[in-house]
Amino acid sequence: MKYPKHIYEPLRYNVASSIVAHEFKKIFGELTPAEYKKIESQIYDWPIHPEKYSITKEPRDFWNGIEGIMTGFRLKGVVRFITAENVVWTRENVNPTEFILCTDHFHINDEKIPTWNKHVKEVYGWLNEKGYIEAATKKVEKSFSKGIPRIQDPIYCRKNKRGEYLALDGNGRILHALLKNKISVPAFVGHMEDENPNNYWVPTMFLINLGKLYKKQVIDFDTYKKILDSIFKYSDSAKIEYEERVPDESDLKEKILKLA
């Protein structure tokens, strides 16, 4: 293995593939279920048989691809948390009343629903107090009636040391489950007791672009090395990617890597 062994864990691949497959249901909303199923099966197969898709045998292309789709296209930075060594993943069925929502994009009757960092019971109480339960139920039902069914797709969440489930993605599905009185929703749960992720995948292109800033003298050597030292501290794979993929001159790389 070129990278730390946790980068290769099948469940991490599965979490990432699930999130992308879910987003593709929205992006390619006019596909038939049969057409989508072909795409979905290939997404899950990317890290298993990369040679079929012109993807690197090592998971460089896979993790960079997930980053490109989810962060570059959907503005959902998921790769750092999925790949962090101090995050342990499980597949569970979770009661929707256990979640804390992590979004502020929900509106009802032109009024913003207070959801950011709010427990779902608080959100339900607010909707009930406003007399919006029926309207909210109809709105989420309409939203999930479009395109390929996705209401049963797993939630992507973090469980912290206090036992709280933080909904990193899938807030709409949680709200739907709450309003429809469902007793559980499927979820990929990342268990992390630390405050921050550690030893995660850093996108290769980020490192390449950082090198370009140095070459263009936007940042000086001391700043460049300080930034890279900080990144290497939290990512073993980033150091490998810098050595192999960033086109710095060999003497510069030697200085950068010295004592890194």
Note down, in words, how this protein is organized.
The protein has helices spanning 10-27, 33-45, 60-73, 79-83, 120-130, 133-144, 171-179, 204-215, 221-234, 236-245, 250-257; strands at residues 88-94, 99-101, 107-108, 111-112, 118-119, 155-159, 165-169, 185-191. The chain is an alpha/beta fold and 260 residues long. It has 3 domains: 5-88, no CATH class; 91-191, no CATH class; 204-257, no CATH class. The strands form 2 sheets. It has a 6-stranded mixed sheet with strand order 1-8-6-7-2-5, sandwiched between helices. A two-stranded antiparallel sheet has the order 3-4. The longest helix is centred in the first third of the chain and has 18 residues, at 10-27. The chain is globular. The model has no long low-confidence stretch (mean pLDDT 95).
Q: Can you describe this structure in just a few lines?
A:
The chain has helices at residues 10-27, 33-45, 60-73, 79-83, 120-130, 133-144, 171-179, 204-215, 221-234, 236-245, 250-257, and strands at residues 88-94, 99-101, 107-108, 111-112, 118-119, 155-159, 165-169, 185-191.
Lay out the secondary structure.
Layout (H helix, E strand, L loop, with lengths): L9 H18 L5 H13 L14 H14 L5 H5 L4 E7 L4 E3 L5 E2 L2 E2 L5 E2 H11 L2 H12 L10 E5 L5 E5 L1 H9 L5 E7 L12 H12 L5 H14 L1 H10 L4 H8 L3
Parallel strand pairs: 2-7, 6-8
Antiparallel strand pairs: 1-8, 2-5, 3-4, 6-7
Helix pairs in contact: 1-2, 1-3, 6-7, 9-10
Strand line-up in the sheet with most strands: 1-8-6-7-2-5
Shape: globular
Report the structural category.
Answer: alpha/beta
End-to-end gap:
21 Å
List segments where confidence is low: pLDDT < 50 over at least 5 consecutive residues.
none
- SSE succession: HHHHEEEEEHHEEHEHHHH
SS summary, helix count: 11
- Rounded to an integer in angstroms, the radius of gyration calculated over CA atoms is 21 Å
Biggest sheet descriptor? 6 strands, mixed
Number of domains: 3
Total E-strand runs: 8
Beta content comes to 5-15%
Portion of residues within helices: 40-55%
Mean pLDDT score: 95
